[in-house]
Batch of 2 targets.
Target 1
Amino acid sequence: MLKEIVIAVQSWGEAQRFIRQHRLFKWIIIPGIIYTLLFIVGMFFFWSSADNVISWVSRQLSIESWLQNKESEWLSFMFVMTGMMLRLILVLFYFSLFKYLILIIGSPLFAYLSEKTEAIIEEKEHFFNWPDLKKDCLRSTRLALRNCLWQSIYLIGLILLSLVPVIGWITPVIALLMEGYYFGFSMLDYSFARVNFTPAQSISFTGRHKGLAIGNGILFYLMHVVIILAPAYAVIAATLCIHKVKNS
């Protein structure tokens, strides 16, 4: 799996050179601006509401007064850490839902970019085909809804686990790896659709090559330092990644 993660990471570097060489920035900037604005506004409101909910629960359970009566620095530290882990998991949960919304809304662009990237790699002329694009969008939407359901189930379990002192502190790492896997899976599937993989075959292949999905997804999260580039870069990097794996 480590080798596959390295391949996925290298593909992001290749995506940068590929985009510059073939002048694809026009397919990145405008969708990127829309994505960035939605992300910042959504994250602001979610963080505020999540913080209010946690504070309300803490007041209802009288946790702060109980800690003051105990006068234990160790207990206070444990509850502060637990609260931080819970907030991180809730943020990732929001990010998960937001990500699937973007995958559904942006599926026409992502499918087109993946097709165009593969056509350039294979030195073929790219023709816009609406029926094929529509089919890929419907497939992407169904896959996104399927992954959203399973990931939500796992994240609810992690939210509960995050309430357990010490053990719950590892939950953000598990959640981040899971986020990376499911996002990368969605990006890889555009390439699978073009080689006529059924959804079951796509799920099976990605399950055997988790590193490709995790590597692509984790780089997607790291690219949020420059949010505007993240989604389109992920699609192009995933297409380059699958092309490299097919050839090997």
Target 2
Amino acid sequence: MTRRRVVVAMSGGVDSSAVAALMVEAGHEVIGLSMKTHRGAPKGAKACCTPDDMRDARRVADKLDIPFYLLNYEALFEREVIEPFARAYAEGRTPNPCVDCNDKVKFVPLLERAQMLGADVLVTGHYARIVCDPSGARRLARGVDPNKDQSYFLYRLTQAQLAMLEFPLGGMHKDEVRGHAERLGLGVDVAQKRESQEICFVGSEGYAETVERILGRSLPEGDIVDGEDRVVGRHQGIHRFTLGQRRGLGIAHEEPLYVTGVDVSRNVVRVGAAGSLNAQGIRLERAKWTAGVPRIGDRLLLQQRYHGTPCVAEVTAIQADGSEVTLHFDTEGRSGGLGQAAVLYQDDVVVGGGVIIEVIRQVDRRNHACAVADTLGLTAY
């Protein structure tokens, strides 16, 4: 075995702690890095990267007898994750802060710091795999534990980043990781540490109050309207609603109603029956591709939510630089909300992904693709 200088991103949780211990066990020169992203957890939050977590990470590093450095990225996290999260809800979109955090806060600065430390590789506790295709290009793939797979959040990783990353837990299940933590003497408190929730800065106050706290203001009340534009209720701010939402509408109706959209210009929330959520496709912006832009006619697996069930979708239009793409579903169904990440796979391998900017409903497939092409300068099939 070749001894390497390995930097491990340590969050204080069982996953990254087990990874650090496994690297030490393998005989590598290990350096631990932790990122402080906020001053403290909101009340009731199962947050990560809190002061308590940093202390846990330092204790693990001391137990493993490895150097440990704490990096302060509070300002970066505030600018790149927390503020855009609040703005998105105020603009009627549903953001994916974990995607932004991994992209802009974790991997870019951590890889830079690992290179400054002369590391051969940056190792993290993510449940994902890195594989090579026949051309030699590195590809991101799903972790083997379907309940923990995090490839959805990592679709923006580039070839250069993948070349310097390793995800040792991608081939393991969670119970196996906890077993390694116990076997390697990290202690029951680490091995059985509770999971952090997806959005670490949202506590028991809830999303809406978190958005208002970040913005420093309340959002105005407005009307809730049905498909015929008839007023059926009132809302206390569009940031309280997301596509497909059923609970919390405050409307008495003979059949269940769901949020079908938000009209920011009119400060209106639209609702309708379950069938009105059906869509034929979506359009993405800010698309990123791990190993080349797909082609018109490519049929891929599309996942629109973390732990969402993938559906088959066809590429029907794509901008020349690959930054925008239109996809049509094989079978009509529900789409993700505007602002959410949509990730494309070929079997278990990530092809790329982007941010949903349009939901395509009940339209002619070819005419829509051509119309999008005419409007945006895309190449249509």
